[in-house]
Amino acid sequence: MTVTLLDKANYMISSMARLLKDAESAFMGVASFLPFMAIILAKRLYNPDLIWYSIVGYNPNPKHLPMSTVHPWISKYCDAKLQLAELFDISARGELDVVFLAGAQIDQRGYLNNSHIYIGERRIQLPGGAGGALLHATARRPIVWQGKHDTRIFVKEVQRITAAGKPYRVFSPLCIFRFDDDLGRLVVDSIHPWSSFEEVKENTGFEVNDAPPTPEPSDEEIELIEKIDPHGIRKTVLE
Amino acid sequence: MKNMSVMSLEEAVDLIENGSLICLSGNLLYRIPAAFVRELARQGKRDLRVMKTAGGYDVDLLCGLGCAKEIIAGFVSFEAFGLAKNFRRAVEEGRVKYSENTCYSVIAALRAAAYGVPFMPIADISKSYFVKERGFKFVENPYGGGKVLTVPAIKPEFAIIHVQKADEDGNALIYGPWFEDVLMARAAENIIITTEMIVPKEDLRRDIDAVWIPSYKVRAVVEVPKGAYPGACPPYYEMDFEMMEKYASLDEDGLRKHIWEVKP
Question: Could you tell me which CATH class the domain A5-238 is placed in?
Answer without folding.
Answer: alpha beta
